[in-house]
Design goal:
The structure holds two protein chains of two kinds. Chain A is built from 15 helices and no strands. By secondary structure, chain A is mainly alpha-helical. Classes of the chains: A mainly alpha, B alpha+beta.
């Protein structure tokens, strides 16, 4: 098992270097530069422009900039945002807990609804339930997120008044964040009602963000179930006279779960990379919106550092998923 | 009955939700984004100024709330020497800086703070010049490092600025955000502690509100400064709830989650007008959207061609289609809310036949040209692409074939500055309410090559008037110089002046005395809640 883990980690190193190269060069390939954008209509003298570019080190050849960037990275220094002048690490880790909290809730929402729906649809293939689930999940998968979010806000917050419109908590609560995770911080604070306020703020964004993963998980579970249910060993189990619940729940599901876990892992990766639209609609202070703002401002250090940190998190999630395969299916870990 | 009960419980729930745990007067502003930081001299974005210079700081002179009139701020009075080269400021006494957890001021505001605030930006060898990245784009952009020769302390409450050349808009410049006054004592203390950048991260000012908490992309919290020299603000707490999407801001306003919001979505304006909880304030913006001809390129070197193309454009149709009514036809390069706006200017009417005749007279036929359309939305031009298409169609009617060109925004600015365009759409939002800030910056000879003068138009009679106005202190005399300049501008037609936008600010009914600021800022000192 240890060897398995080490091989997996070893494979990450070249991937990580690839990511640094891509994240570094990607933002510099876009036309326009940060100084020109900062100056806007007002414009900037060419000398001053050159001076500022030199100050940020953007006048050096690309390979040299990359080597400097990598050198600092080895020291754990990702550089400083050229807009806010704050270290990228600080910027990222103030916002990341918000993204993580929302992503976890969204994925829990998606799994709790998607998995059973997919299983039942698979078992009762061709039934009304099956058609309904597949119809809804196709709709969910193709839902324009911006529109979906606004629709929910207008209905649940505007017309019914059940949920707050946006944000992570009512702005009237005032306490200093400790962990950055609002649910934990509200419990640590002595503000009454803050926890409830935080929960109520999570509902709509989690639903909106979880909609696509929910659809994907339901469809994947259904098709995996269908495949497994037609296997010989399932027929054998049935022939032995095992109760249907044991056949489906134990024999079939365990094998059907492998592709489903892959999909869930990929979806978590997608959500952690920042739910740009959801964060924008719900004014959710996460990394997705921060990355997009940084791209628009051509804030090179923020974009390259942010992309790298996000990639690192996604790789970590993939590693965990890989290890989970081994746990669920011993054949995978013994194959090596 | 059941329905009534239900309504009552909703109303109670709602009032509890809005009252929240704080009982003091709390005003919530749904702002559009995060500030870049809290030192206004380091940045140029309006969002940053809303969160920093307006609530936290003061300047020697201030703009009166809701107008471009300059009034005394931290300086009680000032006087200029005969030659316009020396300005002496008498400073206000008894002004207190904020007390924070890291800093308790031992003295009141005085001349040292003024000198610190200007020398940090202007003197390259000042110990604070390079702190926090050290780029002072507004200070540089307003040419302050060239204009200000020295800042001298006459006594604790008198400061003298010596200028290198007469500059009539100088006082208005000092009321701008970048000229905010910071505490020299705090700076010294932070330098000693080895954390000079704290001065910019944990701001200490003299303003009506004190920063309490900032959570990036989420919330900014201020408390009213009880010792404020102008009297404590009527509200106790000011909160910025950062909400990037305009339609969501409106939903929050409707739900009572905030009291004031900026930049509504034009599509929501109609609904706001009929919303009984919301009061839609409107004011003409201090901006101008224009089409500039590249006057260095033939045939735009000929003013008849420029005039003809002016006549060929149906501005009314543009205002209706592009601004959806939230705009006003521009006839001068100055917006009408600025002093010295020339009412007497006669605009070119929409006259395709006249345009054709004038083009023929200039010997131009079968002209092929381009129209550059900005890739971004601006108050002075909410949809440049659409505007370009309308102009293209208008020009086609007089036999001019135009191609629409666009680039990424940074690239657009760079290339148009280099003069690669035939005609370009752009605009300007005023900084200080002085006509010089429009006319000289956008049309002066200094800016004509590689600068902000996109028409690359340098016309001596016009430029002479501007130079003279810069050196004249008397407002009446300056007014007549600028009025004359506007007539020359119209006759020479380096631009098609297109529109001034109308700024809409929805506020909830319980908000008392919110005033739309013509310079674009959002200011909450003086605002109350019912």
């Amino acid at each position: 098992m240890l060897k398995f883990i080490l091989t997996r980690i070893g494979l990450l190193i070249p991937t990580f270097i690839g990511v640094t190269i891509i994240s570094f060069s990607f933002i510099r390939m876009l036309p326009g530069d940060p100084i020109e954008l900062m100056a806007g209509e007002r414009g900037i003298e060419p000398e001053r422009h050159a001076q500022l570019m030199a100050q940020f080190g953007f006048d050096k050849p690309l390979w040299e900039q990359y080597l400097i960037f990598m050198g600092k990275l080895l020291d754990g220094d990702l550089g400083v945002s050229i807009v806010t002048k704050k270290p990228i690490f600080d910027e990222f880790f103030t916002l990341f807990p918000a993204t993580l909290e929302l992503a976890l809730f969204a994925i829990v929402f998606a799994v709790v609804l998607g998995l059973p729906a997919g299983i039942i649809a698979g078992v009762k293939r061709g039934s009304v339930f099956d058609h309904t689930v597949m119809g809804i999940s196709l709709t969910g998968f193709s839902m324009p997120i911006f529109w979906w979010g606004l629709l929910l806000i207008i209905f649940f917050s505007g017309i019914l008044g059940w949920t707050p419109v946006s944000g992570r908590i009512s702005v009237l609560y005032y306490f200093e964040p400790v962990t950055g995770f609002m649910l934990i911080d509200t419990l640590l604070s002595d503000e009454k009602g803050a926890f409830r306020s935080a929960i109520s703020h999570l509902i709509l964004p989690a639903i909106v963000l979880g909609t696509i993963p929910l659809a994907v998980i339901a469809r994947q579970t259904r098709s995996a179930m269908l495949e497994v249910l037609s296997e010989d060993y399932v027929r054998t189990a049935r022939a032995k006279g095992l109760p249907p619940f044991r056949v489906v729940g134990l024999h079939a599901l365990r094998n059907a779960l492998i592709p489903v876990i892959t999909v869930i892992g990929l979806q978590i990766g997608v959500l952690l990379a920042g739910a740009i639209l959801t964060e924008t609609i719900f004014a959710w202070p996460g990394v997705g919106k921060w990355m997009v703002d940084s791209i628009f401002r051509r804030d090179y250090p923020s974009v390259q550092g942010g992309l790298m940190l996000v990639a690192a998190v996604v790789m970590l999630v993939n590693l965990i998923v890989d290890l989970l395969y081994g746990l669920i299916n011993p054949r995978i870990r013994h194959a090596r | 009955m059941r329905r009534q009960l239900w309504m009552a419980s909703v109303a109670i729930a709602a009032s509890v939700a809005f009252a929240g745990p704080l009982s003091a007067k709390t005003l919530v502003y749904c702002s559009e984004g995060s500030p870049e930081g809290f030192n206004p001299s380091l940045y140029t974005a309006g969002t940053t100024f809303d969160a920093s210079s307006h609530p936290i700081f003061n300047r020697l002179a201030e703009f009166e709330r809701g107008s471009t009139t300059v009034i005394p701020g931290l300086a009680e009075s000032w006087s200029a020497s005969e030659d316009g080269l020396e300005y002496t400021f008498k400073l206000r006494k008894g002004v207190k800086f904020h007390t924070t957890k890291d800093f308790a001021p031992s003295r009141d505001f005085n001349a040292d703070d003024v000198i610190f605030s200007f020398e940090r930006q202007g003197k390259k060898d000042h110990p604070f010049h390079k702190v926090s990245g050290g780029s002072y784009e507004y200070f540089e952009g307003m040419s302050m490092s060239e204009i200000i020769e020295t800042v001298e302390k006459v006594d604790d409450y008198t400061v003298k600025f010596v200028l290198s050349k007469p500059e009539a808009p100088f006082i208005a410049n000092l009321a701008m955000d970048f000229a905010s006054i910071m505490s020299a004592e705090y700076a010294d203390k932070m330098m000693e502690a080895g954390t000079p950048e704290q001065v910019d991260l944990a701001p200490v000012g003299t303003g009506p509100f004190q920063l309490q908490q900032y959570q990036k992309d989420a919330v900014i919290r201020y408390k009213a400064n009880a010792d404020y020299w102008g009297g404590k603000a009527p509200i106790d707490t000011l909160i910025f709830a950062i909400t990037p999407d305009a339609s969501v801001r409106y939903q929050k306003l409707k739900a009572g989650e905030c009291h004031v919001m900026p930049y509504p979505n034009p599509a929501d304006i109609e609904a706001m007008k009929s919303d009984s909880d919301v009061n839609l304030l409107e004011q003409e913006g201090l901006n101008v959207g224009y089409l500039a001809f590249n006057t260095e390129k033939a045939p735009y070197t000929d003013k008849r061609v420029r005039q003809a193309l002016n006549m060929a454009i149906d501005k009314k149709a543009i205002i209706d289609a592009v601004f959806q009514g939230a705009g006003k036809i521009a006839k001068n390069p100055l917006p009408p809310t600025i002093w010295s706006y020339n009412e007497a200017t006669k605009d070119y009417g929409y006259d395709p036949e006249g345009a054709k005749a004038l083009l023929a007279e200039a010997g131009v036929s079968g002209l092929k040209t381009n129209i550059w359309a900005m890739p971004v939305q601006r108050p002075y031009n909410p949809n440049a692409r659409r505007m370009a298409e309308l102009i293209q169609a208008d020009w086609a009617k007089v036999g001019v074939e135009a191609e629409i060109v666009t680039f990424e925004w940074g690239e657009y600015l760079k290339r148009s500055k280099a003069g690669e365009h035939d005609t370009v759409l752009l605009g300007w939002t005023g900084d200080n309410g002085d006509p010089d800030n429009f006319l000289y910056v956008l049309l002066g000879c200094d800016a004509a090559v590689g600068g902000t003068n996109r028409a690359r138009w340098c016309h001596k009679p016009f430029d002479d008037l501007l130079q003279k106005a810069k050196q004249t202190a008397d407002p009446a005399e300056r007014t007549s110089l600028y009025e004359e300049a506007q007539l020359i501008f119209k006759e020479e037609a380096p631009w098609v002046t297109i529109a001034h936008s109308v700024v809409s600010m929805p506020v909830r009914n319980e908000v008392v005395d919110y005033r739309v600021h013509p310079l674009g800022g959002h200011i909450f000192y003086g605002v109350d809640l019912k």
